[in-house]
Inverse folding.
């Protein structure tokens, strides 16, 4: 199965089908362990390009994206790039190991051999430069650029009258400030906290940014947290929103989220605030 990037295919037809080998930027890989060892010795991240030699999207990336001078300089400076072909034994092994179903696919590994990002589609040079920058940012800081604007303190702000007007659900006029308890209040005898897990999406899913912006616009008084997790070496984002110590208030907020179209939102109960 292939994902077609029309602009890339147009460039491919204009440039012509020329093999990337010769003046290529990629190295041959004997194994994942060997490639990781070389990358680590060079103090670079491992970038693996998984391709199918006859696939139009792969040819397009090789004739256009990887020939862009800025892309080549970024890769040369910070990455050790290798190319894997899915038709040979090593390629088949990697495809099974990392569940690769599309070509081209890019795999990014850190110095510890951890897969920190996997992208399964053809990319233009501008798209690839953006992804390379994101990977380098994560490797340096331990979190993704999208998380910069998200507060990490375990507090919940109290809405004012203006905030209430901006939301899609209303609070009772009486005791408005008590409707959203701040962390530290003991309004729950069991000491449980309630928070909403809004989405759990792959790190290359562009909808995560739209979801965060939508939340901030509709529910500005609630804390939004975007956290990076890994499962079986595959990274993904979890979007958390709100923090309550009373079930009824949390459940009312969950209903409001469902009305806004966040159908996957679910209420999670924990013995401590969400991480």
């Amino acid at each position: 199965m292939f994902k077609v990037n029309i602009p890339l295919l147009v460039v491919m037809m204009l440039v012509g089908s020329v093999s990337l080998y010769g003046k290529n930027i990629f190295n041959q890989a004997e194994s994942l362990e060997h490639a990781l060892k070389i990358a680590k010795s060079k103090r670079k991240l491992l970038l693996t390009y998984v391709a199918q030699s006859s696939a139009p999207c792969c040819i397009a990336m090789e004739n256009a994206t990887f020939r862009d001078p800025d892309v080549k300089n970024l890769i040369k400076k910070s990455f050790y790039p290798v190319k894997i072909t899915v038709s040979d034994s090593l390629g088949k092994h990697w495809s099974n190991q990392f569940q690769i179903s599309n070509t081209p696919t890019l795999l990014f590994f850190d110095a510890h051999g951890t897969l920190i990002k996997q992208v399964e589609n053809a990319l233009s040079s501008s798209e690839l430069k953006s992804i390379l920058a994101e990977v380098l940012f994560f490797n340096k800081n331990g979190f993704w650029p999208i998380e910069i604007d998200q507060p990490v303190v375990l507090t919940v702000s109290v809405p004012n009258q203006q905030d209430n007007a901006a939301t899609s659900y209303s609070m009772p006029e009486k005791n408005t400030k008590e409707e959203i308890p701040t962390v530290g209040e003991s309004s729950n005898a069991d000491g449980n906290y309630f928070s909403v897990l809004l989405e759990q999406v792959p790190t290359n899913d562009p909808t995560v940014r739209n979801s965060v912006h939508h939340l901030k616009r509709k529910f500005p008084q609630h804390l939004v947290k975007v956290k990076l997790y890994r499962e079986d070496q595959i990274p993904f984002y979890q979007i958390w929103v709100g923090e309550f110590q009373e079930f009824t208030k949390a459940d009312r907020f969950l209903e409001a989220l469902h009305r806004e179209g966040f159908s996957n939102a679910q209420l999670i109960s924990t013995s401590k605030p969400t991480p």
